[in-house]
Amino acid sequence: MKYQIHPIASILIGLVLSSLLLMSCEDLLVKELDIEDDFNFTQQLGISGSLINSYNEPSDDVFSKILLAENQSVVEQVADPVFYNSEALDLYKDGEYYNTFTNDDDGIHVNQVENSNDPSFAIDPGSYRIEVDHPEFGLVTAETVMPDPVTLTSLEMDSLNFGGAEFENETRFVVTVQFDDPPGDNYYKIDLYTTDEELVVFDTIISAMDTFIIERGIGFYYIESINLQGALESYNGGYLFDDSVFDDSAFTFTFNMVLSDSQDLTQSDIEESIAVKWSCISEELYNFETSYTNFRNSQNLGPFSEPVSIYTNVENGLGYLGAENFYYAPF
Question: Which of 192, 261, 267, 273 minimizes the number of CB atoms within 10 Å of its CB?
Fold first, then answer.
């Protein structure tokens, strides 16, 4: 004789089994680690920062900042980090001594002399190495390459392709980018930039005997999405990508730009207010930003997250040294 289970009974059995499974999974996922107070780990000097160069015309005064600090824990964040201030953080270019960074306190070292508005030395394309001799940890070094500049050949904003944004006060534009990728491995980052954070445009309206001045401006702006295989939205804004898909060729891609409170602005107003920050970055900076972005994204999965290693190129220490060569490309 065959027996059939009533459909309602099947649903109840499924719910019970699911609850048991979830309860057992919860028990498996909760695990307390018994870490002794005197848990030993290797103390090291950390280096964090990028060499920065601008090929804007006219050139901007940009500064490179390198942070030195000691690691103090591997199980918790430290509220008061131990910074290391050095008067001998040396920079080498193409194998020869080039210059020394200025100590600006709290572990920050810059290519800027105190009370000066100009960089104390430029960082042009080339191979670089920084060295610092720590009294406890010894010689700590890191190397990177400042890439040659690559200029966009075309940058166009399509004002006809807008709408469908998340909020009523947002407007979407499609931006088309063209450039020639040079031979070799190259790494890029693209973002939006404005010199006027409020992007305010003033209109004067004369009505009868009265004159009115009206402010019109953009609240915020961002790249919503990018039509480029392998591009990754960075943890600190903008999108990272390499030339593995289009190596040594002319290439065109598009991205969606979203602006808020821009309905009353003309396209000319927008084009004069916003530029594209186009960066050629070193392989080291690309590897660090992608690994750290993937690490932060993985934390959103909670107990189901997979371990992600954060890239480091520091010898006898921790952290990274990168390089960025950028300019602001106008529409």
Answer: 267
66 alpha-carbon distance from chain centroid: 16
Q: What is the DSSP letter of 303?
A: G
Per the CB < 8 A criterion, the answer to whether 282 and 150 are in contact is no
Residue 236, token pair as written in the block: 């600190």
Task: Kindly report, residue by residue over 159-197, the tens digit of the pLDDT.
Answer: 754 555 455 677 888 999 999 999 999 999 999 998 665
Stretch(es) of the chain classified as CATH 2.60.40: 45-146
* Furthest C-alpha separation in the chain: 99
Q: Classify domain 45-146 at the CATH class level.
A: mainly beta
* Angle in degrees, CA 123, 129, 130, rounded to 5: 95
Q: CA-to-CA distance for 287 and 130, rounded, in angstroms?
A: 18
Tokens standing for residue 136: 């406890």
- Whether the per-residue pLDDT at 250 is higher than 60: the answer is yes
Bond from prior residue into 58 cis (ω within 30 degrees of 0): yes
Percent of residues, the chain, with pLDDT higher than 70: 72
pLDDT of residue 67: 97
Tokens encoding 110:
């810059």
Q: Considering the entire predicted model, what is its pTM?
A: 0.81
